């Protein structure tokens, strides 16, 4: 993963991050613009309570699977805001389209911040008017826009990958935000990706969904999904490669691999910034009957409150892990499984084909003191695997979220 470059290294992409006053001390408006209309795809929150920008952006994406700009405000989620919020979201879309002289349906809008607060329409709209002329392809603009979408995050989350197709360098960059309300099947997170690849719209949509299922949908911090979640991608084709139209195209597999690499990188950054978290935990399930089975087991383990608290307390209580597997909604025979616990360097087997092994609890407690922990489960009834990432559940998390608005 190359971290020196950012989204401004993608052909035809300009952006800006600005302070409009919605947040007192930080940038709170992000604009990402493609000089030409781009193939676009997006996935949205599965929460039944959906923010106003989610409704508008999904409608626009479904109109023609095309977009030319993403605009996002931070500091206010514009969720549960009624008619006032709906009009505010539409105003964001309309002023952006007007200032850029593009169709309204080519605008993707997003919001993040407090739920249920009246939407500061005037501040956001004036911010868009006052900053669109600053759009730039300079590296600093990419840094500004990555910082402008943050809420409780402690650092900006960026990534960039490059690969060759048709003898042409293809560029792809992305930014993300999120640190709390993170849960499989999307959470309080946003991610925006841009690439200069030329690819057919419907294939782009299919690929995004494939990669999100194996990246953002495999992370968890606290088990809560939010109202505003969105992952969006624009592919403007300015690399001028022969358009990728099918999964059999020689360039398709490498594109999918690189998109998954980028989204996984951003997903891991979100987990590593989990509110109050002291540990980054990698969960791996192997030798499962199907990939979906493996991913369900990963999600069951990583979302278990008892597993998270055990990791926080450095407690090698492997019974909680096995018990969580029994809640995964699949056929699970613990008598066949092997289980390993450890850090990035060493793993200790604690279970062999369902039988407890003698192990040095103090030694494992020492391994679990590390900031990066691994849990590996072998199901032993197939050849498929799945991987996910999560954090521990700490007293700091409880304290932070008990006074979030006050």
From TrEMBL:
Keywords: Acyltransferase, Amino-acid biosynthesis, Arginine biosynthesis, Autocatalytic cleavage, Cytoplasm, Multifunctional enzyme, Transferase. The record marks 112-113 as: Involved in the stabilization of negative charge on the oxyanion by the formation of the oxyanion hole. One of its GO terms (biological process) is L-arginine biosynthetic process. The record marks 187-188 as: Cleavage. It is found in: Cytoplasm. Its main location: cytoplasm. Substrate binds at residues 151, 177, 188, 275, 401, 406. Pathway: Amino-acid biosynthesis; L-arginine biosynthesis; N(2)-acetyl-L-ornithine from L-glutamate: step 1/4; Amino-acid biosynthesis; L-arginine biosynthesis; L-ornithine and N-acetyl-L-glutamate from L-glutamate and N(2)-acetyl-L-ornithine (cyclic): step 1/1. It comes from the Bacteria. GO terms for molecular function: L-glutamate N-acetyltransferase activity; L-glutamate N-acetyltransferase activity, acting on acetyl-L-ornithine as donor. InterPro entries: Arg_biosynth_ArgJ (IPR002813), ArgJ-like_dom_sf (IPR016117), ArgJ_beta_C (IPR042195). The active site is at 188 (nucleophile). One of its GO terms (cellular component) is cytoplasm. Its EC number is 2.3.1.35, 2.3.1.1. It catalyses: L-glutamate + acetyl-CoA = N-acetyl-L-glutamate + CoA + H(+); N(2)-acetyl-L-ornithine + L-glutamate = N-acetyl-L-glutamate + L-ornithine. Catalyzes two activities which are involved in the cyclic version of arginine biosynthesis: the synthesis of N-acetylglutamate from glutamate and acetyl-CoA as the acetyl donor, and of ornithine by transacetylation between N(2)-acetylornithine and glutamate. Heterotetramer of two alpha and two beta chains. HAMAP family: ArgJ. Belongs to the ArgJ family. This is Arginine biosynthesis bifunctional protein ArgJ. It comes from Aquiflexum balticum DSM 16537. The gene is argJ.
